[in-house]
Amino acid sequence: MAGSKSSAKGQSARLMSLDVYRGMTVAFMIIVNTPGTWSHVYAPLRHASWHGCTPTDLVFPSFLFIAGVAMFYSLKKYNFEFSAQSLFRILRRVALIFVAGLFLNIFPHFIDRDYNNLRILGVLQRIALAYGLGAITILLVKRNYIWITTAVILLGYWALLYFFGGADPYSLEGNLALTVDKALVGENHLYKGFGLPFDPEGLLSTIPAVGTVLLGFMAGTIIGNFGNSWKTVGWLALAGALLTGAGLLWGEVFPINKPLWTSSYVLYAGGIGMMLLALLFMIVDIWGIRQWTGFFNTFGTNPLFTYLLAGIWTKTMLAVKIGEVTLYKWIFTNICSPLFEEQKIASLMFAIMQVMFIWAFGYILYRKKINIRF
User: What is the DSSP letter of 322?
Assistant: First the structure.
């Protein structure tokens, strides 16, 4: 990571709607990750149990979609051409983000930990790998053929799961991603939250996640081609609606599934991402209605650092004890729970408290125009 002050010129050149979208995604991710108690959570704030898609299941692909949009601007300075310099910068960023994710997996138990059972992968690790593979793809493939490359990736992933999976190739127990990740990463280093060693941020399912990044890049290309105009809104909205429809249609035979990051899920989530970006672009960049954006810009200008900070804070609350309970549980039990008879509301209020706590730190960086880059 490196801290730097953004110049006024750099700030004005930013796509405001993208920062707002990014900030909304980070804030919502904190809410869904830190309820006061998992026993009382509103249904939209939970992941689908397996097949299906809730609003919570749209958070992570939004991160990757937004990274793809931003990639249009970051790679433009290389004229979208592959070089030793561009490759070095991409790989350096991949390494920094991946190490940050690994750090978060280990924190705060660096010494008293069995590293033979350490989870290797995770959210930041997937962002790192999908970003790196997506960026290299964009530099190696002509821009007019990015959509073909994306189609090949998604169709190829479908074929891999269908032909090389078990009797039920899209099930938890029978999917190919499970087999590949066990072989490459090892059972002991995979996520155990599904009741067996299966990682929703595994290596094989990172392949279609690259498709999510590429959809974001294509959205960035639309914005770059048409600029601050209604054509941008129209094309983003149209492409988004077509992708969402295609995802739903494909989902009839290849179920929409976040843990497997199925190709239908890529189209569905990417389509919704495009439509949301079109809406925000219209409100923020065309109509210029920005009075409400400051809160989200605080998160949006330092998204990965904010996410890392939120993870560290959550793990700290779980590690610190007040009497016989963790600080996390103490805050919910003694502050949030007594305020609301409905415990789902109390649980949500706890999550919103965490958003505000992290926002306060992010606001200091935002006011000082400090961007901490990975």
Answer: E
